[in-house]
Amino acid sequence: MNRPDRGSLFRVWHLAWPVILSNLSTPLLGVVDTAVVGRLPGPEYIAGVAVGATAFTSTFWAFGFLRMGTTGFVAQAAGAGNADEIRAVLARALLVALAIGLALLALQGPVWQAALHLLQPGAAVAHHAGAYFEIRIWTAPATLGNYALLGWFIGMQRPRLALATQIWLNGVNIVLDLVFVGLLDLGVSGVAWATLAGEWSALALGLYLALGMLRRQGGTWDRRRIFDGASLRAMLTANLDIFIRTACLIVAFGWFVRTGARFGELALAANAILIQMVGLIAHGLDGFAFAAEALIGSALGRRDLAGLRAAVISSTIWAVIVALGFAVTYWIAGPLIVALMTNQPETQAAAGTYLGWVVLYPVVAVWCFQLDGIFIGATQTADMRNAAIASLAVFAIAVLLLPDLAGNHGLWGALTLFNVARTVSLGLLYRKIERRAVPAPDLSPSGPAA
User: Fold this and answer.
1) How far is CA 17 from CA 12, 155, 158, in A?
2) Distance between CA 15 and CA 407 in Å, rounded?
3) Alpha helices in 39-158 (DSSP H)
4) Which residue from 141, 181, 229, 400 has the highest number of Cβ atoms inside 10 Å of its Cβ?
5) SS3 content of the chain, % helix, strand, coil (to 5)
6) Residue 76 confidence (pLDDT)
7) For residue range 155-213, what is the model confidence (pLDDT) as tens digits?
């Protein structure tokens, strides 16, 4: 493999740092959500937000292909210099987001019942979770539209625009969290109303920024190109593959929450706090995976094998450095972070018991996060789907065996094995991406084959 030069390392950092800040603002919101309800009496409030947020994010996470698929396709269009296709990718993604969002609003009752069946919370937790869900579901079209815009900005290598929309979204959300819960005492419903305002206002900002960028970019809105059959089929096929891949991750994390509930409300509350810390890791490392998506998609659009290899190595070097930083930070300051999220001594003690798994998490997970970014940028979605299915099978075996042997420690061990399986299964398929980046032979009469 080619050794990256300082230029490629700098380019990855230039693309990654706005995304890292943007991503870290999202779990920071989760930390604030947890902290404001963590001051309410009893662990059922934290558990209620955890279950409600899991139901919501699991539902919307299933449609994460609106970000991931958009990034790969627009990066390849940009690498090929196709301005009309750049516009068409955005239009297709936003139309799909609107259609799915409206469908989820129409089906919100069955969605919530399915979530209850999957997570099986106790009566008190279900009451608070339901109050949260019935408000936040109305963010559906805006949330999915924001996914599409985020993927498009990243694929166009304009991470500062992605940062602007995400900082706005989460900033509005955090401020209104403090107002609605801290000042107006709206409880769990206040957290949901804050999210509603943040999502819709961020969608308006994102559309404004995207249209301004396109005016400078050039190209035209071509209805025939937007609805081109081959392009739509390619997008829908890739989206279906990513949907199945993401569904496997949702099942794994939902299974994690449900199994944790077997150990009681205290363990569920402790796991909710630790999962917020895992979210910080995931969103921090995803910045380098997102940079890899944009650079690898662009390199494939140019059929630039050297550029692809430099993007892979450079983004991974940065990701490993940050992963080690997370591990050291949680090792030293983990108890303090837990104490910031809850003032309940028994919940703090329970979270401290399992904190070592969160210290280990970034070191294990960094590799599968990077490989996800590489495969998304390459739109190598069938391989992502197959790897996720195989990894879920490994997790299923582990989660059926380990919690019975080691309780909640066994549950965290199963989640760790899930990430190991994701790394191995995707790593075995990586060479297929490099073969796609090899330039096509020149068959013209004046070319080498003449």
Assistant:
1) 9, 15, 12
2) 41
3) 44-61, 65-79, 83-106, 108-119, 123-136, 140-155
4) 181
5) 85, 0, 15
6) 83
7) 888 888 888 888 898 888 888 888 887 778 777 778 888 888 989 999 999 999 999 88
